[in-house]
Design goal:
With about 80 residues, the protein is an alpha+beta fold. The protein has two helices and four strands; from the N terminus they run βαββαβ.
Length: about 80
């Protein structure tokens, strides 16, 4: 999603940080998740929190290191 022009410190966008984008894309696609591959990230639409838990468990079981992070913390907006 596009970032708002200005945002306060309480604005966040949660995402998963993974070690291998290519492997993550394959694992999710092979398990019937709709994956939209961008140049440096993946977008996966989920319908509920249970699906996020399923994704994390699936990645862990596949040997892919992942962590939930606020991806906005990595964006500088000056």
């Amino acid at each position: 999603n596009d970032l708002p022009e200005f945002y306060m410190s309480d604005y966040s966008v949660l995402g998963l940080q993974v070690v291998s984008l290519d492997r993550t894309c394959r694992v999710l696609a092979d398990n019937d998740f709709t994956v939209d591959r961008k140049s440096e990230h993946l977008e996966v639409n989920i319908d509920n929190a249970a699906q996020l838990s399923k994704i994390v468990n699936l990645l862990i079981q596949s040997g892919i290191d992942c962590s939930i992070t606020d991806i906005i913390d990595q964006v500088y907006q000056g």
